[in-house]
């Protein structure tokens, strides 16, 4: 059932009410988001063809992302949660995967755990984790295994940043960009 709202149009002839079908507009936005997500996944997979590199990225990308969450957590306890709720919603909308969306919240929880457990050393652990993550992804994954540059050296988008963990897990899980 299509929903519609009434919008007032201001024209030279005065205001008029126009019915706008918001359902199809929402569907169209969701469809465009899913298409863009699938394109990002395909681009990602073009630069990650080696199966071992898939698994390295499936581990290292969440470590890298969690390092940023730990840094945000040190600024304010709510920041990683706010970001991850937004990312979870984006991942759910873009991929249709409840598991990939919910996993984003587990990363915020992991950041909390690290900060609580290693309070005085949390930022140092985050910096070390981030550095190791990059060494594994780029040094081992791309230079040694793939013999290529990371895809983000060619194309970096906000969508690719926010979907990075889900793309790494999706690729390791299925191996190819599948129709959603």
Category from helices, strands and their pairing: mainly alpha
How would you spell out the order of helices and strands? EEHHHHHHH
Count of DSSP H/I helices: 7
Give the N-terminus to C-terminus distance in angstroms: 22 Å
How many domains, as an integer?
1
Count of extended strands: 2
Quote the average pLDDT: 86
The portion of residues assigned to helices is over 70%
User: How is the largest sheet built, in terms of strand order?
Assistant: 1-2
Give the strand content.
5-15%
Q: What coarse outline follows from CA principal-axis ratios?
A: flat
Radius of gyration over C-alpha positions, nearest whole angstrom: 20 Å
| Low-pLDDT residue spans | 1-22, 176-180
**The biggest beta sheet, please?**
2 strands, antiparallel
Name the descriptors.
180 residues, mainly alpha, two-stranded antiparallel ribbon, 7 helices, 2 strands, 9% strand, flat, disordered N terminus
Structure description:
71% of the residues lie in helices and 9% in strands. It is mostly helical and 180 residues long. The chain has one domain (33-174). A two-stranded antiparallel sheet has the order 1-2. Strand 1 and strand 2 (14-21) form a beta hairpin. Helix 2 (51-75) runs antiparallel to helix 5. It is flat and about 50 Å long. The model is unreliable at 1-22 and 176-180 (pLDDT under 50).
